[in-house]
Design brief:
heterodimer; A: Aldehyde Oxidoreductase, domain 4; 18 helices; 30 strands; globular; B: 154 residues; alpha+beta; DNA polymerase, domain 1; five-stranded mixed beta sheet; 5 helices
Chain lengths: 722, 154
């Protein structure tokens, strides 16, 4: 589906013949350009292109990043349109298919979306696509009109010569496509940008389809004789099927088959309801001999004990122990962080049709390259025989990027188990999704510090946590000295000048699958560092903003957002209503700097956040309104979790199964939000995640100014139901 | 299994399903209308919101056997002036992020404006707090409802 134009089928465009579409891609690290192979070529996996220009003048950008809400379809189209001098109304966008050569993320080296990297890694690449296409279109027009290319201008999608000759992109696309692709097209100077960084010009390309029900998600895929598959999985992580009785389940009308698959017992039915009804009738004995059976309380006492012993040192400077020994005001704080489910609105799912020699899969694949490989491997066919198309995903927050490829694996396994010739849609229920693991890791930070003469003299942060990356293909990239850097990122290098510093880690194995969750390690390190520095500054008698700034001499971008937010919120002199207080925090994640000030009061259940001021420095701001939207959404997402969310284990079984036990923020709890985008000419960085980390500690710090303890165990309102 | 003649968006759909089947799945798998979403299955998130004779219901928790001759309206059949105003405001403010909950949000918002043409923030809280948005687009949902209300004035 093309978001803007449902009638456009990429395949149809390709089959329409050479010259219809201009196809351009940048191969290998954005250094070389090449033209798309002729459309008549037998392209199995990918139309080798980022860009299609149709005779009707529409320009479709193929986006290598998945659209799960953060706006990459619009972002990529913005970058191309800027350099192409297109009119925004002619822009369209669609997901690129899986092809690691053409569509690899320049940060990861494989095709995938994550780490708030979409704009950061595509900024130059997609601008070059637009610039190259523009030069080719101009050359084609110059040739057609027999005028020098230098006399031709392009504005709002119209190619024009001083003689009055003019035409649209569609008119010259066929001719342009036959020209050599310029290797180093000239990029605009940012001072002449018309779209990048401009307010009110670029609108999201997917808003209309997402407002009238026509946007297609994986759950919406329908084909003749499609089978819906639900799987009964072990209630404990690591449990296996010992035996099962499917007699009653098989008798449910609409059930087509029941098969044992590696992850459990799969029910294949004509529609979701018979599949789920039958699953509820399965009688399964589980072998829990290798399952994780600890409860959360047990994990906490083990983690807590470990946190009181030295871990492996991640980084240290000065002499922490020596400084502590000199006395002063000693502050110690233990922070406990729960397992968190991502719970995207669209639970996990996938579609595949295996035809024996070939297969075609469609779903919200966030890591197409490894997903693609595992599907081919399970089905025993070449990767070139598998077509994988990423489509819109109903949220992710990290959940659809799986280092284990477990959903793609399970999807291929259910296709294989029933045999070729079936269109199958694997659906996880909300409960499957919530109890299915891959959580933000449970963990403890034990912080110790000392204040002498109004200064923070020593600081230590002992972290106990589970590695996200261990055993995954990302281990090599993320491990340093045998330790998972995502377990301590942010804690190892607070933005403050601390003379005597130590950060150490206990990396613990637990049989609960864990995963990156919107802002990864910063979800807990941001809280620990920012709540603790605030507590120490309070002990030192310093203002939270001025005190931070005084220690941020080497961190101008941190200081920049902190100053900006303090000014915007009138931190120094604002008069607050009685019962209200403000707290502040600043966190860098994914090279983006965010400071937030929270104003809250205490309600019956817990904090009521009235307003959040947010300042963000993400380098060059490509789409300001999308940046604001991500700050707003990140704040709401963070607030809901910091207040209410935790997944607990009872004898190894995850307890929360739905939104009645895993409480989500609702509209009545959403604060007013004021976002300031700090002007910057630094390279653009991401915004999907960085709005999350500062919110929690800012809430904690505001609570402290009401005389309460900064919450030591999250969520703040524990045991909350709806 | 039983045969049901469901009136959805003015059309009759003959659907043969178990009487306990939630209306949501009759709409999606039976009638093939996929704008109405599954989010929780237990009337907690509102992604499945449709109208039954003009009243909002959570279709995930209403058995198809309870629908009877009532008229079902889904996002695909939302053609009230309030619905159009809400959808226009949603696009104008670029409300959706992932978009998955927005059909339900829009159904609830249009129903609110049908009952209350000038809702206060408090009215919006009461009418919309059954619709979860995990992307937390709530700031814009609120602004878009006010915008739609304004556009319907006069």
């Amino acid at each position: 589906m093309t978001i803007h134009d449902k009638t456009l089928s990429r395949r149809a465009v390709l089959k329409a013949g050479a010259g219809l579409a201009i196809g351009i891609y940048i191969a290998q690290g954005g250094k070389a350009f090449a033209q798309t192979p002729p459309a008549r070529a037998n392209v199995n996996i990918a139309p080798n292109t980022f860009l299609l220009i149709k005779p009707d003048n529409t320009v479709t950008v193929l986006c290598k990043h998945i659209e799960m809400g953060q706006g990459p379809l619009t972002g990529m189209a913005t970058l191309v349109a800027e350099e192409l001098d297109a009119d925004w109304t002619q822009m369209r966008a669609d997901h690129a298919p899986s092809n690691p050569v053409l569509y690899k993320n320049l940060v990861f080296g494989v095709q995938g979306t994550g780490g708030s990297s979409a704009i950061a890694n595509s900024y130059e690449q997609m601008r070059k696509v637009g610039a190259a296409a523009r030069e080719m279109l101009v050359a084609a027009a110059a040739d057609a009109w027999q005028v020098p290319a230098s006399e031709i201008t392009v504005e709002n999608g119209i190619i024009r010569h001083a003689s009055g000759k003019h035409g649209g992109f569609g008119e010259f696309a066929e001719k342009a496509m036959l020209l050599p692709v310029p290797k180093e097209p000239r990029l605009k100077d940012p001072s002449s940008f018309r779209l990048i960084g401009k307010e009110g010009v670029v609108k999201r390309l997917d808003s209309a389809a997402k407002s009238n029900g026509s946007a297609e998600y994986t759950l919406d895929i329908h084909e003749q004789d499609i089978l819906t598959v639900v799987i009964a999985r072990s209630p404990k992580f690591g449990g296996k099927v010992a035996s099962f009785d499917a007699a009653a389940a098989k008798a449910v009308p609409g059930v087509v088959d029941i098969k044992q698959v590696p992850t459990g017992i799969a029910v294949y039915a004509k529609g979701f309801w018979p599949a789920k009804t039958a699953r509820d009738l399965l009688k399964i004995n589980w072998d829990d001999s290798k399952a994780e059976s600890r409860s959360t309380e047990q994990l906490l006492s083990e983690f807590r004990a470990l946190s009181k012993t030295p871990g492996r040192v991640v980084r240290q400077n000065g002499d922490f122990d020596g400084s502590m020994a000199k006395g002063g005001r000693v502050v110690e704080a233990e922070f406990v962080f729960p397992y968190l489910a991502h719970a995207p609105m669209e639970p996990l799912n996938g579609f595949i049709k295996w035809e024996g020699e070939t297969a075609s899969a469609r779903f919200g694949s966030q890591f197409p390259t490894p997903d693609h490989a595992v599907i081919a491997e399970v089905l025993g066919i070449g990767i070139d025989k598998v077509h994988l198309q990423t489509i819109l995903a109903g949220g992710s927050f990290g959940r659809r990027a799986q280092q284990t490829t477990h959903v793609a694996l399970e999807l291929a396994q259910v296709a294989k188990a029933i045999g070729p010739g079936h269109a199958v849609k694997l659906v996880w229920t909300r409960e499957d999704d919530m109890r299915g693991g891959y959580y933000r890791p449970f963990g403890v930070h034990r912080m110790r510090g000392v204040v002498r003469d109004g200064r923070i003299e020593a600081w230590s942060d002992t972290i106990v946590g589970q590695s996200i990356m261990k055993g995954s293909p990302f281990e090599a990239m993320t491990f340093k000295d045998g330790m998972d850097s995502t377990a301590y990122e942010g804690s190892n290098e607070p933005p403050y000048e601390l003379a005597n510093f130590k950060c150490d880690l206990h990396q613990v194995d637990v049989g609960v699958p864990v995963l990156w969750w919107r802002s990864v390690g910063h979800t807990h390190t941001g809280y620990a560092v920012e709540a603790f520095v605030d507590e120490l500054l309070e002990a030192a008698g310093q203002d939270p903003v001025e005190g931070r700034l005084a220690m941020m001499g080497k961190k101008p971008r941190h200081a920049g957002v902190l100053k900006a937010v303090a000014e915007r919120a009138d931190w120094k002199s604002a008069k607050l209503e009685p019962g209200r207080a403000r707290g502040v925090a600043v966190v860098e994640s994914f090279n983006t700097f965010v400071a937030q000030i929270v104003e809250l009061s205490m309600g019956e259940e817990g904090p009521v956040v009235h307003k959040v001021w947010c300042a963000v420095d993400c380098g060059v701001a490509v789409n300001p309104d999308i940046i604001r939207a991500q700050m707003e959404g990140g704040i709401g997402f963070a607030l809901g979790h910091i207040l209410y969310a935790e997944q607990t284990l009872d004898g190894g079984r995850p307890v929360a199964g739905n939104f009645n036990s895993y409480r989500s923020l609702r509209i009545n709890e959403m604060p007013e939000i004021d976002v300031t985008i700090v002007a910057s000419s630094e390279k653009p960085s991401g915004v999907g995640e960085p709005g999350v980390p500062p919110l929690g500690p800012a809430v904690a710090n505001a609570m402290a100014r009401l005389g309460l303890q900064r919450p030591r165990q999250l969520p703040i309102v524990r045991g909350a139901s709806v | 299994m039983a045969a049901f003649a469901l009136k959805i968006n003015g059309q009759t759909h003959n659907i043969d399903v178990d009487p306990d089947t939630p209306l949501l799945w009759a709409i999606r798998d039976g009638a093939g209308l996929t704008g109405t979403k599954y989010g929780c299955g237990v009337a907690q998130c509102g992604a499945c919101t449709v109208y039954l004779d003009g009243q909002t219901v959570r279709s995930c928790s209403l058995p198809v056997s309870a629908v009877g001759k009532s008229e079902v309206t889904t996002i695909e059949g939302l053609n009230s002036k309030e619905g159009a105003a809400v959808q226009k405001a949603w696009v104008a403010l670029d409300v959706p992020q992932c978009g998955y909950c927005q059909s339900g949000q829009i159904m609830s918002a249009a129903a609110l404006l049908g009952l209350n043409p000038a809702p206060t923030d408090r009215d919006i809280d009461l009418a919309m707090n059954g619709n979860i948005c995990r992307c937390a687009t709530y700031v814009r949902i609120r602004a878009a409802i006010h915008g739609a209300a304004k556009s319907l004035e006069g």
